[in-house]
Write a structure and sequence with these properties.
globular; 45% strand; 36% helix
Length: 187
């Protein structure tokens, strides 16, 4: 039994080290500002094309935080990383990264994009002044799926932010605890 625990621990440590290395190498090869701006515009177009609710919410939002590609992988320990841009209208203002860590029953790898529609000045100011937005702390954020999205109208949009995940590729099986932090980065 001890031998099995030792082998399992050794495998877990190695997989976690490979995961950290993979996510670090992705961030080192991060896109230029121009590439990130272009990717953000393409990601928004894809989201609007596949999700009319997102297009409607976008018209009501004051700003959009667009992460065109997040890379996520895990085997017991997991992590995710991606870079995004804050859009006010069509202007590209600030750049952010999204970093997640997780622990629990999980295996696989996937990529996806996500957009957070910031609906009011409170959400925008919090993002700018907090030096890192932990999802679940600060302004209220609603994760929108197709079922919830069908019930939205301009009179029911009362929360500070709405998030949409889209363009998921790969396979990730997970029953884990996860935390995400969005932080500003210099370009």
């Amino acid at each position: 039994m001890k031998k099995f625990q030792y082998i399992w621990s050794a495998i877990t440590v190695r997989v976690f080290a490979l995961l950290v290395l993979a996510l670090t190498s992705y961030s080192i090869q991060a896109a230029s500002s121009e590439d990130l701006n272009r990717d953000a515009e393409q990601a928004l177009n894809l989201l609007y094309k596949t999700n009319p609710t997102a297009a409607n919410i976008s018209k009501q939002s004051k700003a959009k935080l667009v992460f065109p590609k997040i890379i996520k992988a895990g085997l017991i320990f997991g992590g995710a990383y991606g870079e995004g841009v804050l859009l006010h209208g069509t202007n590209h203002h600030e750049y952010f990264n999204s970093v997640s860590a997780s622990w629990g029953w999980q295996v696989g790898a996937e990529s996806f994009g996500y957009v957070v529609f910031l609906m009011n000045d409170k959400a925008i100011n919090y993002l700018s002044t907090s030096h890192g937005w932990e999802i679940g702390v600060g302004p209220s954020i609603v994760m929108v799926n197709d079922g919830v999205g069908k019930n939205f109208s301009t009179s029911t949009l009362k929360e500070d932010a709405y998030a949409f995940i889209f363009d998921q590729q790969g396979l990730m099986l997970s029953l884990s605890l996860e935390g995400t932090k969005i932080s500003p980065i210099k370009r």
